[in-house]
Amino acid sequence: MSWRATILTLYPEMFPGHLGQSLAGRALTDGIWAVDAVNIRDFATDRHRTVDDTPAGGGPGMVLKADVVTAALDSVADGRPVLAMTPRGRPLTQTRVRQLAAGPGAIILCGRFEGFDERIFHRRAIEEVSIGDYVLSGGEVAALVVMDACVRLLPGVMGAASSGIEESHESGLLEHPHYTRPPEWEGLAIPEVLRSGDHARIARWRREQSEADTRSRRPDLWDHHGDGRIQSPSGARRQKKEE
Ligand code: SAH
């Protein structure tokens, strides 16, 4: 059984979108994963196929109706985790992505307008997920982000099996920087250590870069990364250099 995403959206034609290309696209063709998009509007009950209504209490915009959204959701619910894309949700992490990728797939609700009637979250088991602290016009791109992150982890999707493990965020650190030929470009040389062929030295250098970059670029990650590290030999050396 392949990993399967079911998307509930007002714009089903947006799927598989960019995931129909490149590695994810090939994996889709190969049947490693599957996506079906369900139009929420098909579950409207009135003549005008209404999916939204004005916000209770007044204010701008429209709110997706609880009855229509849950009718769509109930029609596909099968035990897979149900995610609703919303900037009010818990920020997506690589840890959660790994869990989702290891499961049977996901059902993903895409909002539009002002979002969903809050009561759906009280009556259905729905995980509210945000992809970051900014506001999109709809949940479709956010759903593609979730799927992209999961699909690349599925067995057989990425070329080198190891390349998933050393990435940024997998270890709680940013990954080290990368270089490729030519050895010199616009007066900049590839760091000598990377051309040394000394694999132990290279590994140590990469670890140091990874720690230094996390510390300077993402102090929030560094803090969560845990104590101890900052006292490590490389950490201590680096601290000296920066002072
Ligand atoms: N009024 C809402 C924003 C609605 S944006 C609020 O302020 O919380 C319209 C839709 O875009 C949302 O329902 C959601 O599905 C999607 N969306 C917007 N920003 C998002 C984000 N950061 N993460 C995930 N989904 C998002």
How would you describe what is shown here?
The chain is α/β, with parallel strands linked by helices and 243 residues long. The chain has two domains: 3-151, Alpha/beta knot (3-Layer(aba) Sandwich); 165-243, Trp Operon Repressor, Chain A, CATH 1.10.1270. Helices cover 33% and strands 17% of the residues. The chain contains eight helices and nine strands. It has helices at 22-29, 66-76, 94-102, 120-123, 140-151, 199-217, 219-225, 233-242; strands spanning 3-9, 33-39, 52-53, 63-64, 82-91, 105-110, 127-130, 184-185, 188-189. The chain has a five-stranded parallel sheet, sandwiched between helices. The protein binds S-adenosyl-L-homocysteine. Residues 85-88, 110-112, 114-115, 130-132, 134-136, 138-139, 142 line the site of S-adenosyl-L-homocysteine.
CATH topology-level fold name of the largest domain: Alpha/beta knot
Q: Rg to the nearest angstrom?
A: 22 Å
The biggest beta sheet, please?
5 strands, parallel
End-to-end CA span: 55 Å
What's the number of helices? 8
The strand count comes to 9
Helical percentage: 25-40%
Q: What is the C-level CATH assignment of the largest domain?
A: Alpha Beta
What is bound: which ligands?
S-adenosyl-L-homocysteine
Overall pLDDT score: 92
User: What is the overall silhouette?
Assistant: elongated
Name of the CATH architecture of the largest domain: 3-Layer(aba) Sandwich
Work out the strand percent.
15-25%
CATH homologous group name of the largest domain: SPOUT methyltransferase, trefoil knot domain
Coarse structural class: alpha/beta
Oligomeric nature of the chains = single chain
The SSE order reads: EHEEEHEHEHEHEEHHH
